[in-house]
């Protein structure tokens, strides 16, 4: 068995939702981000052709440029984040014990490479969203190009003035306004179209592609049904569900770390905790005893857990909807405890 593991970044390793924090540099940017993040969920769940979860990072680009946000701003925001408790120790231990550790992240490169360096992970072992924001400013954008973005920003703020973003009845209005902006107004503008074309966010199926590319680095067979059966993948949100699903479907191990409703049904093992080092138990048993041995140990842990346990392990495969709901409530609690305000995204 080859010791190859791919981690999502935001959630399992880093506490910050970097794009959200960057948007907070803009007046009312946090609220604008929440609307666009809701829109991202809507498009993902409806299965819009060509759209991947996490494309929020592409959708906010016009607003970042309207307010002259730079790559340096993104780096400075990234520098303020904290690592998840135990993450650095876990990565060090895995590397010392022969694990090939990779990051597969939706995050902008300015954030992903920064966190990887802090964790001692080589830049070449990071798949993330390349984001040459400074270069985009060299495009010949005119006042009227920015005016259409400003109009969209005003429309979003009008939605928020009418009702809280937490009101689910706003989904239809959000979709109407943003469909018109992204798929009609911006598409008629060649320069915005070019900028959007250059951004390929690593989320959804693109995470699967990055995972398969990672596996091939270690001489796995190129066919997806055989190259992922010894891989371990770790994720927590909607951008990860396809990556975790394909690993589980092919016989690997998908670990959901403080996950949300979008990802829990697709994992192998669920882990709710404040300390990333608790994942070591899963990896140690898997290496020594394989998937069957891991299932036995996790189910035994499930039987022994109490309401006051510091961490919770669950074998997710085969759980019914009621059981998943109960597990979700535990993960929600730990997700909020670990990530605070960032817990609501993804």
Descriptive notes:
This protein has helices at 18-23, 29-46, 56-59, 61-66, 71-79, 87-96, 109-119, 133-136, 143-162, 171-185, 190-198, 205-216, 224-227, 241-249, 279-304, 321-339; strands spanning 4-7, 100-108, 126-129, 231-235, 253-257, 269-273, 311-315. It is an alpha/beta fold and 346 residues long. The mean pLDDT is 91. It has two domains: 4-15 and 84-130 and 204-344, 3-Layer(aba) Sandwich (Rossmann fold), CATH 3.40.50; 26-68 and 137-198, AF1437-like domain fold. Helices cover 53% and strands 11% of the residues. Helix 14 (241-249) links the parallel strand 4 (231-235) and strand 5. It is built from 16 helices and seven strands. A seven-stranded mixed β-sheet has the order 3-2-1-4-5-6-7, with helices on both faces. Helix 12 packs across helix 14 (241-249). The two termini are 32 Å apart. The chain is globular, with a radius of gyration of 20 Å.
List the helices and strands and how they pair.
Layout: E1 4-7, H1 18-23, H2 29-46, H3 56-59, H4 61-66, H5 71-79, H6 87-96, E2 100-108, H7 109-119, E3 126-129, H8 133-136, H9 143-162, H10 171-185, H11 190-198, H12 205-216, H13 224-227, E4 231-235, H14 241-249, E5 253-257, E6 269-273, H15 279-304, E7 311-315, H16 321-339
Parallel strand pairs: 1-2, 1-4, 2-3, 4-5, 5-6
Antiparallel strand pairs: 6-7
Helix pairs in contact: 2-10, 5-7, 9-10, 12-14
Biggest sheet record: 7 strands, mixed
Helix content: 40-55%
Shape: globular
Number of domains: 2
Q: What is the β-strand count?
A: 7
Strand-residue fraction? 5-15%
Q: Total helix count?
A: 16
CA gyration radius, whole angstroms:
20 Å
Low-confidence stretches at least 5 residues in length (pLDDT < 50)?
none
What CATH first level of the largest domain would be assigned? Alpha Beta
CATH superfamily of the largest domain: HAD superfamily/HAD-like
Please state the average pLDDT score: 91
CATH topology (fold) name of the largest domain: Rossmann fold
CATH architectural type of the largest domain:
3-Layer(aba) Sandwich
């Amino acid at each position: 068995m080859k010791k190859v593991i791919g981690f999502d970044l935001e959630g399992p390793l880093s506490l910050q939702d970097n794009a959200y924090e960057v948007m907070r540099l803009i007046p009312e940017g946090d609220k604008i981000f929440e609307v666009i993040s809701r829109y991202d969920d809507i498009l993902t769940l409806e299965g819009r052709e060509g759209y991947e979860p996490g494309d929020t990072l592409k959708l906010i680009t016009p607003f970042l440029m309207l307010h002259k946000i730079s790559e340096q701003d993104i780096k400075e925001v990234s520098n303020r984040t904290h690592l998840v408790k135990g993450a650095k120790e876990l990565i060090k231990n895995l590397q010392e014990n022969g694990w090939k550790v990779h990051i597969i992240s939706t995050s902008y490169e300015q954030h992903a490479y920064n966190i990887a360096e802090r964790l001692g992970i080589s830049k070449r072992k990071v798949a993330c969203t390349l984001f040459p924001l400074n270069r985009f400013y060299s495009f010949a954008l005119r006042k009227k190009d920015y005016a259409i973005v400003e109009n969209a920003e005003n429309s979003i703020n009008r939605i928020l003035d009418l009702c809280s973003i937490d009101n689910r009845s706003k989904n239809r209005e959000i979709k109407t306004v943003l469909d018109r902006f992204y798929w009609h107004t911006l598409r008629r503008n060649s320069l915005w179209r070019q900028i959007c074309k250059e951004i390929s966010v690593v989320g959804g199926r693109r995470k699967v592609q990055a995972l398969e590319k990672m596996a091939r680095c270690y001489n796995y067979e190129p066919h997806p049904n055989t190259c992922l059966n010894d891989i371990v993948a770790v994720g927590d949100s909607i951008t990860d569900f396809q990556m975790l699903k394909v690993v589980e479907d092919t016989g690997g191990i998908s670990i959901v770390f403080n996950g949300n409703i979008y990802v829990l049904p697709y994992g192998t093992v669920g882990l709710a905790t404040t300390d990333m080092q608790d994942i070591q138990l899963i990896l140690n048993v898997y290496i020594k005893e394989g998937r069957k041995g891991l299932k036995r140990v996790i189910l035994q842990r499930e039987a022994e857990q109490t309401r006051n346990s510091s961490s919770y392990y669950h074998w997710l495969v085969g759980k019914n909807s009621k059981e998943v709901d109960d597990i979700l409530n535990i993960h929600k609690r730990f997700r909020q405890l670990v990530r605070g305000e960032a817990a609501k995204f993804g």
